[in-house]
């Protein structure tokens, strides 16, 4: 079996982690390759992970000259399935489908109607284009039951939608620096402080505003707490202004894009996610590797992993009061932090490994090939 995965290559978040985790395991089961459309950190990190990856560079997003190049590659190498990830790959896939007689599948990593929520131009151009492109695919992988139901509600054929929850590589040793070295990098005095962290790109769908408002509430009760925000994006200036207006600008640290995420998770005590929409986010799985408990909004497929009060806490979206309450209760109980962190790690180890994820993909590919022929 030969499978070609297509992705933009500019990915830095969950989609990047998903592809690298998946491909490391898939290569043990089949002939699998990635082609991306730009040379960036995704390409470099995939190479380091030993993944078979190549760049077919686009001059710009609308450059369709690579369609012909991809067509020749697919026919020459006799790939059985083409698997796309993300809006740019879906757009290319829509034109590619007219050139090849191969089954095409795409993974729904997020609510595609919200992908460009914070960028007016992209929202009006790329969101409709992605919505059109998605209708052209033969099959879909939804990252959660909720996302399958979302697709069904929007008229997609339920018989063509598979569910595969994200998985993470627990076998290899993650690269990270010590807590001291991490904080020295940002010139932050962390001694004697509890560290609350959130890692997510700075756009509206991640709702960092709720995180900052909760920080302000916590700091009225506890002074020994620092809040870290790892990520970059269009919301950065607005969020920094909000932190200053709330009087917490010196306790909420914006770290920008953190290239070594495990150094971040090693440095924090409690992991937080405030998204208003998610599929099954890797930031929870990555934090779990370091046995960090999670406080997260109850969206997407998160409740399939996070059991309220057992390995973390679930809150409603935009509920800064509940977030602050849960943070205060956790930092007041060190034993509870450790117990919840261990419980979360065990749940991930039992059910959400990248090995399981790859094996489920293999089953899906075999089913599709049988149907196609």
Name the average pLDDT: 94
Task: Please name the CATH topology of the largest domain.
Answer: Rossmann fold
CATH homologous superfamily placement of the largest domain: Glycogen Phosphorylase B
The structural class is alpha/beta
Q: Could you tell me the number of beta strands?
A: 13
From the 3D coordinates, which CATH architecture of the largest domain would you assign?
Answer: 3-Layer(aba) Sandwich
The main β sheet shows up as:
7 strands, parallel
Rg measurement, Å? 21 Å
The CATH first-level class of the largest domain comes to: Alpha Beta
The portion of residues assigned to helices is 40-55%
Unreliable runs, pLDDT <50, ≥5 residues?
Answer: none
State which percent range the strand residues make up: 15-25%
Q: Strands of the largest sheet, in order across it?
A: 3-2-1-4-5-6-7
N- and C-termini, Cα separation: 14 Å
- Basic shape: globular
Order of helices and strands: EHEHEHEHEHEHEHEHEHEHEHEEHHH
